[in-house]
Amino acid sequence: MSVLPAVSASVLQAVPAMPATSVTSVTSVTSATPSGSVVSIVLAVAIVLATLCVVPGLTHMVGAFGPVEGEQPRRPVPTRDMLGLLTATVVVAFAAKLTDHVAWLPAYAYLGLVGVALAAIDVRVHRLPDVITLPSYPVMAGLFGVAAVLDREPGRWLRGVIAAAAVFALFAAIWALPGAGLGFGDVRLSGLLGGALGWLGVPVVLTGLMAGITLAGMWVLILLVTRRAGRRTQIAYGPFLLMGAFVGVLAWNAH
């Protein structure tokens, strides 16, 4: 795990900084004046409400995926209220953080929605279904692509792509190590999160991944100390990666 900061930083910092342009971006238009700030808030609220409209279907989505053959679900399907509360917490937190960058919010709102579903599925049956994770790559790339066009910041999109590839490669290498304890679903998820964090910058990638690794390590330690698990016990790693990404986004400093 200690190679993560060095590998990610060395690869991602190779992306050249994009020169400033004289064209005003959508974000600067909506945040430069008091009326623009109101527009940003209204748009952010609209995006949050549109995202939360999908919440009623999350319970069905989570319950649709069973464990691998021969195993039983480890947890019941969360209630709609619980999934709704978690989704609202994540998406509203992202909206509050990104009010001045409203063009970015659809991508992070989507990540919050899908992230809650994946975390709930992984906790319940120790799976991160490809049918959710893989289509999320083009969806996120498209949403960030629109944001890059609106804000005239193609460098962010390119950095996100490189971050996704670098983090995916790093976790794939860890997965290949004997006794690593990762599933390949975790590897696929790591690339998706790397792209979302890479949009915000290399330090955010490192912060998010290290937060996820630290949270997972703390949980394993608690399980071992309380004798609720042994050294070979498998844990759902996806929720910790997702929580780390959540921490990374909220810790991002625009300045």
Can you offer a commentary on this structure?
It is a single chain. The chain has 255 residues and is an all-alpha fold. It has one domain (25-251). Helices cover 70% and strands 0% of the residues. Helix 1 (4-12) packs antiparallel against helix 8, helix 9 (184-200) runs parallel beside helix 11 and helix 10 packs across helix 11. The longest helix has 24 residues, at 202-225. Mean pLDDT is 85; it is low at 1-24 and 28-32.
By DSSP, the count of extended strands is 0
Sequence of secondary-structure elements: HHHHHHHHHHH
User: Roughly how many Å apart are the termini?
Assistant: 29 Å
Mean pLDDT: 85
If you compute it from the alpha carbons, what radius of gyration comes out, rounded to the nearest whole angstrom?
A: 19 Å
Whole-number tally of structural domains? 1
Taking the sheet with the most strands, its summary is: none
What percentage of the residues does DSSP assign to strands (E)?
A: under 5%
The dominant shape is globular
Q: Would you summarize the structure shown here?
A:
With 255 residues, the chain is mostly helical. 70% of the residues lie in helices and 0% in strands.
List descriptors.
255 residues; mainly alpha; 11 helices; globular
Helix/strand layout:
Layout: H1 4-12, H2 26-31, H3 34-52, H4 58-63, H5 80-97, H6 105-125, H7 130-151, H8 154-176, H9 184-200, H10 202-225, H11 238-251
Helix pairs in contact: 1-8, 1-10, 3-5, 3-6, 5-6, 6-7, 6-11, 7-8, 7-9, 8-9, 9-10, 9-11, 10-11
